[in-house]
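Before a colleague's protein record goes any further, I have to sign it off. What it holds is a sequence and that sequence's fold in token form. Would you go through it and say whether the fold makes sense for this chain? The record follows directly below this note.
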Amino acid sequence: MLRTWLFAPLLTGPRDRWLLQVPFIDLGIGRHNSDLDAVLLRDGNPIDAVAYQIKRVKVTEATFATGLPGKLGEMPKAVRQANATAALGFARVVLTFLVVADGRTRTEFNFAFRGPTGEIVGAINRAIDLTNLHDSVGVARIEVVQPLDRDFTLAGGIGGGFLRQPQPREQDAALSAALERYGTKHGQS
């Protein structure tokens, strides 16, 4: 379900493939201790790859009392990672903020209102500073809410969208070749 939300705006059809947790070392690029959270090979073609850097923001039971979501301090690191990924020469790069909210204890509210409050959403939005983000990098925010103590696929909510669309660029040829080799072994559709 999350993959559908993550990739849907940039999917092209049934030949699309994705790669998850791709280590830079396996591609022979960038810093060896880094990775990409996901890579979408549109139409299965490695020359039009979309690289995703994903940062999770946690909204726990305590967050509803404090108004302070977890991991907001990692936002500048996320921007640096997205910029480094763009510098590697991908056709598109998307920085995704994944807001994961646990609203199961908020039983005083209707099922539909157990997600982050306006105050919490405001804190998250204020923490997303795009000032130093490369102009070509897209930014998405996806919100996942678990409102009941049940399997998420039976009782959960997901939504989101782009804050900024990724701008397509010509992809580096050596990177395309590395993605082809890696994708042949590890790609999923």
